[in-house]
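[User] Could I get a sequence and structure tokens?

[Assistant]
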Amino acid sequence: MKKSKINGRVMSAKELVKRIKEPHKRLISDNPKLLSQFRRVREQLRKQGLLGKRSLIIA
């Protein structure tokens, strides 16, 4: 699994999704690098078929 770095912390895609669902949305939309990373992770999840699951719904 690809690890992503946010605020100097290495985290997996699932952790990244958790962080994204929390109130970091403004922070992420302000930061284009994070936003593109978020989009990539979301695409990966969609390909894996995980996005349909209730636990991973991302607005």
Residues 4-53 form one domain.
